[in-house]
Amino acid sequence: MSFRRGVVRQSKFRHVFAQAWKAEHCIDDVRVSRVTWDSPLCAVSPKFIAVIIEAGGGGAFLVVPISKSGRIDQSCPTVCGHAAPVLDIQWSPHDDSIIASASEDCTVKVWQIPDGGLTSPMTEAIVTLEGHSKRVGILAWHPTAFNILLTAGCDNVICVWNVGTGELVYQLSDAHPDLIYSVSWNKDGSAVCTVCKDKALRVIDPRRGTVREKVHDGTRPMRAVFLTDGKILTTGFSRMSERQLALWDTKDLSEPMAVQEMDTSNGVLLPFYDPDTNMVYLCGKGDCTIRYFEVTDESPYVHFLSLYSSKEPQRGAGFLSKRAVDVNKCEIARFYKLHERKVEPISMTVPRKDDVLNELLAEMKALRAVVLAQSQRIELLERQLARIEDGDV
Question: d(Cα 110, Cα 69) in Å, to the nearest integer?
Answer without folding.
Answer: 26
